Amino acid sequence: MDEMKPQTPQVLLHPDQRVGANMARWRKSGGGDAISIAAGNPDRVREQVRLAELRGLGGSGFPAWRKWEAVAAEKPNPDKYVVVNGNEDEPGTFKDRLLLEETPHQVIEGAVVTALAVGANRVVFYVNPDLSRSLAAMRIALEQWKTSDLTAQASTALGKPLDLLLCPGSGHYIGGEETAAMEWIEGRFPFPRGKPPYPAQSGIKGCPTLINNVETLAYVSHIAKHGADWFRALGKAPGLGTKLYSLSGDVLYPGVFELPKGTSLRELVYTHGGGLLSGKPLKAVFTGGPSSTLLTPADLDVALDFDSLRARGSSLGTGAMIVISEGTGIVKRVAEYERFFAHSSCGQCNSCKTGTATMSQLLDRIDTGRGTESDLSILKNLCAMLPNSGRCHLVNGAAMLLDSAFRHFHDEFVQAVARAPARFGGASRG
Ligand SMILES: Cc1cc2nc3c(=O)[nH]c(=O)nc-3n(C[C@H](O)[C@H](O)[C@H](O)COP(=O)(O)O)c2cc1C
Ligand code: SF4
Q1: Which of 116, 227, 236, 298 holds its CA 20 to 30 A away from the CA of 196?
Q2: For ligand 1, what atom is nearest to the CA of residue 215?
Q3: Residues in the chain with pLDDT < 70?
């Protein structure tokens, strides 16, 4: 008999939201009602977002209200922007594309409520250009909004026309970094900018700009409608609210699951993901995708929320969980991910350009039986030297991943080097 799955709250993935670009159907079930709430009392929306402790779900977990307050405090210069970050290009993360494709009106409503709350008159929906279905749904939905009473109502409240723009991204992973996104939206290659100035003061065309992830903003209309207490109560303490987890790798049922924030890793993998393929034991989980840290079977009961994972030296990131079963080599997997970082580095910072390339080369060497002990010490030094050495966090992610793999699976790296024939400088096999 199938094990009963626990009932889980559905907010973002509620059937009322999953109507694609069908605006009439969406409005019949209350879609759009948050616009008049935000138009009437934008300060209250900001307050509720603060009390809900909504965190940024694009990887950092930064409290949303702090950026919101900073942007709300700025005067338009001459405009103010909200950017909806849908670049989503990290391996293992595939939640935002689902929201854009199946719930485009929910995403737009969240962004417009946010624009009203911070006084922004321009909203840019910045979407990975490879997500053709997400782009198509957003294109149709935005056309409907342009002639809708909802946009007219928001424009009246703002005192100037609300501009809604769809901007396909560059197709580069680095284009998801917030200042790189702004460069691309302004028409240049997405090189991350140095900070300060921060986007809240000087973002797109020098105007105050708020940038949030698609999932972060999708929660906003619900918080505006139902309040912070309702949102908080959806979580499993200490987690607040719900979260979309992208589950992939060696599980029976990969997919996107909306669960109470704070659900355990065990419940996600074994109850919702159906357990591991062929009933194999769990070896590790890359949390937050590759630019984060590893969890092991000892962490199965950890709550998947920002603070519980941070307390274990890990992080929730985007909520991507890539599951690895026993029998999979960690060195090979880490080498693949480091190759991704090396290819994705924009090359502006020497430490990142050469650091990620060196890590990738050495790991490939070790993985193919040509590594040496000195390669291992170089890699360890790089893990210590690279964090915070670049303009953006790409280089931090690359170092954090390897450092975590060393911490949990050091033996596999040592064995890979010991396997190397003596002519490559590895330990003699006797
Ligand atoms: C290399 C790199 C890629 C990123 N890609 C994305 C992305 O695809 N989507 C996203 O929302 N945030 C991405 N971020 C994080 C953004 O810089 C920014 O923190 C985020 O959009 C803020 O939204 P949030 O506070 O709602 O998470 C990336 C960061 C880095 C360093
Ligand atoms: S840290 Fe790397 S990806 Fe980020 S700006 Fe510097 S070179 Fe580019």
Answers
A1: 116
A2: 26
A3: 1-7, 422-430
Tell me the three state secondary structure of residue 86. Answer: strand
Cβ–ligand 2 contact at 268 (below 6 Å):
no
Considering the domain 23-230 in this protein, what is its CATH number?
3.40.50.11540
Tell me, in angstroms, the distance from the centre of ligand 1 to residue 212's CA: 8
Which residue carries 């060696």 as its tokens? 250
Instruction: Please state which architecture CATH assigns to domain 330-424.
Output: Up-down Bundle (1.20)
* Ligand 1 atom at minimum distance from 216 CA: 26
Beta strands across the sheet bearing 282-287: 255-260, 242-249, 320-325, 282-287, 294-295
- Is 0.85 topped by the overall pTM? yes
Cα distances from 216 to residues 9, 84, 257, in angstroms, run: 17, 9, 16
Look up the CATH number of domain 235-325: 3.10.20.600
Q: Residues 275-302, buried b or exposed e (16+ Cβ, 10 A)?
A: bbeeeeebbbbbbbbbbbbbbeeebbeb
Query: Closest by alpha carbon to 112, among 48, 74, 163?
Result: 163
Residue carrying the six token digits 């490939």: 364
- Identify the pLDDT of residue 430: 34
Q: What are the φ and ψ backbone dihedral angles of 310, each rounded to 5 degrees?
A: -60, -40
- The SS3 call for residue 192 is coil
- 3-state SS assignment for residue 116: helix
What is the rounded distance in angstroms from the CA atom of residue 365 to the CA atom of residue 88?
A: 30
